[in-house]
């Protein structure tokens, strides 16, 4: 999928800059740069980052709730120990009940926290996968059209992806990456 996207960007880049490409027979495009500088990619990343921040804030709030219960549990346990040491059995019984309730509450909240963490991680991963794969398909289609138009207009013999070539003589190969980005961001 990633190679297809890269190849698509290469072809699209060649189509994006007819004036400069006409002096060259071959074109080259940096598909990773196109993907990262495409404004829709940046917006998608911002959206995912916002969602991640919201989930992190919720997780921190839940951790704080668990910590409060844990602190209260430790405090009650200390009080209970002090009462036992001072032989105040009647008050100790009341604290034992409270301590048992806190222990249950702490176990429940800890389990809920772990479950929330796991579910939020899965949901975030699924959302990221959905958004980024949809974006990749969208970019691939758009770049295909752009590159095809540029290649025809400039009578290019071939367009290569920068990431898939070992060596390029920049004097004879036209780098159309910036033009492809500009065309994509213009909404064409």
Number of helices: 6
**Estimated radius of gyration:** 30 Å
Number of domains: 1
| Major sheet: arrangement of strands | 2-1-3
The major β-sheet equals: 3 strands, parallel
Number of separate strands: 3
Protein model, in words:
The chain is mainly alpha-helical and 188 residues long. The chain has one domain (2-185). Helices cover 79% and strands 6% of the residues. The protein contains six helices and three strands. It has helices at 2-16, 18-21, 31-37, 39-85, 89-154, 177-185, and strands at residues 26-29, 158-161, 173-175. The chain has a three-stranded parallel sheet. α1 packs across α6 (177-185). It is rod-shaped, with a radius of gyration of 30 Å. Residues 14-22 have low confidence and may be disordered.
